[in-house]
């Protein structure tokens, strides 16, 4: 017989799996506190009709690695609530307040926003139990998508990757999949550093301009509700066309698993820096590694959001958050790329080893490991 009740336990965790069941409230949920050796677990509250235990565990573990890789004084956790996030707002408030009261004693877990929850939901949670991150500005929150924390970190990861690839960021051609909060801020920050954004895509299509897109005009077009492919100053193509764009740097900033064994050969870039979570399958990452493509894995490159949340939790300011994002993403991208080169391993393996070592060192300070 294996160890553990669920089959996914290992030496890191999960420390606690809490089942929330309250028929009167309509609350059906799970909280996984994976590992708290580095500090209280921070992780989002996901609300969707089809969430499950294993998903919750995998997301909690991903947070353990992401927080440790970023060198934050936080462990990883996650909560899932099985419900339709589009329910009427009064019902949603009642449910989230009920959820918060139910986890009031679970002080090792600090909730944050995720799919189906937002800063207003976190304000309700904080109002009930006095802790949550991703809060509205009025409550000391740092609006990470407004200030572009994740895009800021991605641009810095690109700088580091360029140095490792022997390329100059100035003049480098960049293609970005996804033009939402992450993609558009990354585009802007890279253009500020002299890179040329030659293509961006959204769910409806791709726009390409080899001379470099006029980002201010494209943003204005997008704000009027137009798909990027409807932008006049460029060549329009379907959403998949972004994969084959001629460029030095390719940034996925949309959905999981968009690059896989079946399409990875279309990528032409020398550098891939991941903004989205798990946008490239393990098999495709291995193929890129074998081709010598310099990759900065998702949980290193896109840690800007969680670093911002940690600064908010500690009572810091927006300026401090952006400074810390820059410092940490730069240092961690550098450490991961150097280690991968020195040991002849993939950057994902190097990043996971680095995170695991930090957690194991932190675990040695505890009385029971
Ligand atoms: P968003 O909803 O603001 O934007 C998503 C963008 O992706 C939109 O432009 C959408 O049109 C586009 N898109 C959707 N499907 C697409 C497809 N098939 N092809 C091309 N484009 C497509 O989301 P976001 O906040 O920018 O987050 C993007 C990704 O980054 C998500 O995977 C998210 O989990 C991850 N992430 C976000 C943050 C953050 O700070 N917001 C932090 C870490 C990771």
List the helices and strands and how they pair.
Blueprint: E1 16-22, E2 27-35, E3 41-48, H1 53-69, E4 75-82, H2 89-102, E5 109-113, H3 119-129, H4 144-147, H5 149-165, E6 173-177, H6 181-192, E7 196-202, E8 205-208, H7 215-223, E9 235-237, E10 249-252, E11 271-273, H8 282-290, E12 294-296, H9 298-301, H10 304-313, H11 318-343, H12 347-363
Parallel strand pairs: 3-4, 3-5, 6-7, 6-10, 10-11, 11-12
Antiparallel strand pairs: 1-2, 2-4, 7-8, 8-9
Helix pairs in contact: 1-12, 2-3, 5-6, 5-10, 5-11, 10-11, 11-12
The structure holds nicotinamide-adenine-dinucleotide.
Features:
369 residues, alpha/beta, Rossmann fold, 2 domains, five-stranded mixed beta sheet, 12 helices, 18% strand, globular, binds nicotinamide-adenine-dinucleotide
């Amino acid at each position: 017989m294996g160890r553990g009740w669920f089959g996914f336990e290992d030496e890191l965790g999960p420390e606690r799996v809490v089942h929330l069941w309250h028929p009167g409230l309509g609350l059906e949920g799970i909280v996984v506190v994976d590992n708290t050796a580095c500090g209280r677990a921070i992780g989002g509250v996901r609300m969707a009709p089809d969430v499950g235990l294993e998903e919750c565990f995998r997301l909690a573990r991903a947070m353990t690695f992401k927080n440790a890789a970023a060198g934050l004084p936080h462990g990883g956790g996650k909560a899932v609530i099985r419900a339709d996030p589009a329910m009427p707002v009064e019902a949603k408030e009642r449910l989230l307040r009920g959820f918060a009261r139910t986890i009031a004693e679970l002080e090792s877990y600090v909730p944050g926003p995720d799919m189906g929850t937002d800063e207003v939901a976190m304000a309700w949670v904080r109002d009930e139990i006095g802790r949550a991150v991703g809060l509205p500005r009025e409550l000391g929150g740092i609006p990470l998508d407004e200030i572009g924390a994740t895009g800021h970190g991605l641009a810095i990861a690109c700088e580091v990757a360029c140095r490792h690839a022997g390329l100059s960021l100035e003049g480098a051609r960049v293609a970005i999949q996804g033009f939402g909060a992450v993609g558009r801020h990354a585009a802007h920050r890279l253009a500020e550093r002299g890179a040329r954004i030659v293509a961006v895509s959204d769910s409806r299509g791709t726009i390409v301009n080899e001379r470099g897109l006029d980002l201010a005009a494209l943003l204005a077009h997008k704000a009027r509700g137009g798909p990027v492919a409807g932008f006049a100053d460029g060549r329009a193509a379907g959403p998949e066309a972004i994969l084959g764009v001629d460029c030095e740097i390719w940034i996925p900033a949309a959905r999981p698993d968009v690059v896989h064994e079946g399409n990875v050969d279309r990528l032409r870039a020398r550098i891939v820096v991941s903004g989205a979570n798990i946008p490239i399958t393990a098999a495709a990452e291995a193929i890129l590694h074998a081709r010598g493509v310099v990759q900065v894995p998702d949980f290193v490159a896109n840690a800007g959001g969680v670093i911002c949340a940690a600064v908010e939790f500690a009572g810091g300011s927006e300026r401090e958050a952006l400074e810390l994002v820059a410092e940490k993403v730069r240092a961690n991208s550098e450490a991961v790329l150097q280690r991968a080169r020195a040991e002849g391993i993939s950057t994902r393996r190097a990043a996971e080893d680095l995170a695991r070592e930090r957690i194991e060192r932190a675990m040695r300070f505890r009385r029971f490991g």
